[in-house]
Amino acid sequence: MMVDEGGLAVAGAAVVREWFGRPVSRVDKGGGDFATSADIAAEEAVVAVLRAERPGDSVLGEESGLTGSGERTWLVDPLCGTLNFAAGTTMVAVNVALRSGRDILAAASADPFADEVFWTGGEGAFRRHAGVDEPLRPSGGSRLVDLNLDPPFPSAPGFRAVDLLAHPGFGVSFSPRVLSTTLPLAWVAAGRRAAYLSDGHRDWTVHSAAGITLCRAAGCVVTDLAGQPLHSASRGLLAAADAETHAALLALIGESGEFGAISFGQSA
Model's pTM, two decimal places? Predict the structure, then answer.
């Protein structure tokens, strides 16, 4: 039986909307991180659909961990931007991706409050709104770059995203945005952001797998902060709408970090 990855994300998004503005309980996860009752309820809604329609698949949930032993694994981030949500801010996403081995076969990222879902089944990437799908077309024209400034910072002291903000050339070429959610990865694919940068990313995670897959399916350039392919030892994530934007940001990253061109500036 086929599962609509966009529909899975929408199921979680509906729960997130229901909980918005209501009192939520918090579950401490350590290091200042926490989940809310909305995170848990949204994940339960997505997992319930999967258990009914794909009982043989595994599920890796942000809140519930890994269940099942199937060859295919669904990665579920039920509420990316929990702190935003808990503070009454609507900048959040519901992310779902299907992994088989090292390959992501399908992915979706839903914006619960814009009533839209960005999705890919492996070929092409699309935005669904009011039941209508339209292709995503990345563009660097906005010059808006979203930076993840949330800890931890595994690339420090060689590079931190906050250092890029202080580079005089960054402000000349780009305009920073900080939303603390992976929703901007979908926006890069859709042409609403020129790039997304995070020095806290490591390999495929429930947080970023959907957004990375959307960007790649839309034709964006996605690498680590050294311009190399993402892998388990990658330092950071750079998703750019086009090669020109990617190269410009790599150069600025190299000039902002202690590693300079040796580590961060030598590829595009």
Answer: 0.91
CA-closest candidate to residue 145, choices 256, 262, 34, 228: 256
pLDDT band at 90 (very low <50, low <70, confident <90, very high): very high
Average pLDDT over residues 32-50: 94
| pLDDT at residue 268 in the model | 31
Helix axes 183-190, 209-218, angle to 10 degrees: 0
| pLDDT one-digit tens code per residue, 120-168 | 998 899 999 999 999 999 999 999 999 988 877 777 777 888 889 989 9
In terms of C-beta distances under 8 Å and separation of at least 24 residues, what long-range contacts does 244-252 make, across chains too? 244/140, 245/140, 245/194, 245/195, 245/221, 246/195, 246/221, 248/173, 248/174, 249/145, 249/174, 249/195, 249/197, 250/225, 252/164, 252/167, 252/169, 252/170, 252/173
* Beta carbons of 101 and 1 less than 8 angstroms apart: no
Give the burial class of 231: count Cβ atoms within 10 A of its Cβ; 0-12 exposed, 13-18 middle, 19 or more buried: exposed
236: CB partners within 8 A, 6+ apart: 154, 155, 159, 161, 197, 198, 199, 200, 201, 224, 225
Beta-strand runs (E) in the chain: 26-30, 33-36, 58-61, 65-67, 72-80, 93-100, 103-111, 116-120, 126-129, 132-135, 144-148, 175-177, 195-198, 221-223, 237-240
**What are the structure tokens assigned to 1, written together?**
């039986």
Confidence category of residue 234, pLDDT binned at 50, 70, 90: confident
CB 239 within 8 A of CB 195: yes
